[in-house]
């Protein structure tokens, strides 16, 4: 069979040679995968403790002067994270339950609050890990270890407690999209019939993602190549904190230095010196050109594309993913896409395609055709809704259809194209990785369903038989193999299925109680799409670290399936986009549990508890904010403590997609948004044909889905940090990883975690101290490093003279 590009087989090194080696136990009795040069030369040996011949992998630390680069997935998971397990550590203690619950409440409440803020931040898992460490060590220090209290404080705060708290809090610290739908229904559609149904629909949407992630874990979690790069900084941080203090003392000193350096540095770009968030030489040279603003500006929201701008604010550089862990292949494709975005957006706007110059350069809102480039008139959607909150198509004919900005249309086209390109790319280049996901419906397996003996054999497979099957599979992650060898019990498949079925039933009942207008068959289609999206886009995120934004695609699908029904659009999107995102997040944390060797059963209950706590607190905060701050949330120009910009956008897009046939169908003014789906099926094919003709695997290195998504990535927000992002990414993943692998292994992901942690803590403090999070804002006085926002943007680019009405 010919080899495909991407990660090589899990049992070979970057030269293709086998690196399976014997295992041993260290003097402390920890099962570990490691070998010496002698082992590598002498071949397999028998483990004296178990009498089993078992595989092991190269040491994660390099010998002096060694320069072997970290290239394959196996290199990453065995050299960055130690493949060893101390079974004496107890993950479930009073500290785990107390801190896990507390941080779950804290993270979910904080994330929901910031969803309704004009300045949004995201609760980072690194941030939660840092807080958990501080509080866990504090409890171990202050709680006495005598008498009954010894059960509350069994000893030093250990790594598995720390990992368990982090995973539970991570599962909770999301803002459920159902609360966005409920808030929009409350604000724009007269409320919803049942608060109880609102609670249970939030629980259902979150737990459905949990069930999907569990059922697909053998595909998107267990294989070696599914490294989930975003988990590596956290894994490295957890390991560095809790390994032998003598061994990790120097690494922790580096972590503290970097953490506090970024902690104090962030005061400058976030408050005192906002110019450093995006230094543009071109804007400093000419502060009167809107062309320069659109191309080179980007330090303020919706300003420009940030080309060649130098951003020094890590909060923006690593807003969604850190350049220090983002895989090199993904970075290269992203760089190509961003360069293409400069060309695409500037071409659309200055070519006046779709009357782009009548509307803002960057914006997601709906506009009236009366906009003229100086007065931007927002479309009044209330004029086209009837008393049932459905589209009145007669009134739509009178008012006319809304208009979108050219940049937002560019984003929709490239996103839609990239979605189908992802599916085709995965089928062409990673089809072997997907086969097992659908092996249950193969002809041979379908035959087994009619064979009682085959069914009995599958149902009665013992743990020993399953473990033997896993140990013989060369594609399974060595961390997972170690856990199974150590006797950890795997979660039965029916547990995940029970979660899925019960959540489905609850969700279906609630949709009808809520008068959502989403029919039962639409709900079933939504769940089917969740499985499909998780399989393709979840697998891509596990392989590359790249997460695809599916919300516009989900809203488009709903628009064509349920025309004229914005509420149906809300809930279809909730049970496709939100559930897919939730399943990917939980799959990522399943991988983190695998790296930290947490029992699968323990992880199951931790994530389940985190999902429930997070969903409940999301709903409580949503209903509290909506009831108390409705005027501010409905204000289009709200810049106070509270803002409804996210809810407004979600509702506006639901309206737009509900009239999709008049806006996006073939023959309509935005027909290319829909035709892009068909184009996406074709885009990856020429690359694959060239590979088959030339045999050059470099054609597979180019990933059209990632390129296309980044071609529309700059449609909104602060865009001044991409140049810095790429410089950091190439330095880390190309130069350090290849030329200084010793340093890369020991410090790269640790430094990434420290930078993220220091930044998140300071941003959190500044949000409440000076940015209005506590009720009163304290803006920085105007000076050269903090321009007057009424005249210039943060990078001194010219301000858009247009006004919104």
What is the compact description of this entry?
It comes from Acrodontium crateriforme. This protein has 805 residues and is mainly α. The N and C termini lie far apart (62 Å).
Features:
two-stranded antiparallel ribbon, 805 residues, disordered N terminus, mainly alpha, peptide transport, OPT superfamily oligopeptide transporter, 2% strand
Which spans of ≥5 residues are poorly predicted at pLDDT below 50?
1-67
How far is the first residue's CA from the last residue's CA? 62 Å
Number of helical runs? 36
Tell me, briefly, the overall form. globular
* Average pLDDT for all residues: 80
- Assembly context of the chains: single chain
Kindly name the structural category: mainly alpha
Number of strands: 7
Organism: Acrodontium crateriforme
Subcellular location: Membrane
Family: Belongs to the oligopeptide OPT transporter family.
Transmembrane segments: 97-115, 121-143, 196-220, 254-272, 332-351, 408-428, 494-514, 520-539, 604-626, 672-694, 706-728, 749-771
Summarize the SSE layout with pairings:
Blueprint: E1 21-22, E2 24-25, E3 31-32, H1 37-42, E4 55-56, H2 73-80, E5 84-85, H3 94-115, H4 125-142, H5 159-172, H6 177-188, H7 195-215, H8 217-220, H9 232-242, H10 245-265, H11 267-272, H12 281-285, H13 290-296, H14 314-317, H15 328-350, E6 375-376, H16 393-399, H17 406-429, H18 431-435, H19 443-448, H20 452-459, H21 463-471, H22 478-485, H23 493-513, H24 520-544, H25 551-561, H26 566-596, H27 600-628, H28 630-634, H29 645-658, H30 660-663, H31 672-682, H32 684-694, H33 698-701, H34 704-711, H35 722-739, H36 741-769, E7 803-804
Parallel strand pairs: 6-7
Antiparallel strand pairs: 1-4, 2-3, 3-5
Region (Disordered): 1-51
GO molecular function, one term: oligopeptide transmembrane transporter activity
Protein name: OPT superfamily oligopeptide transporter
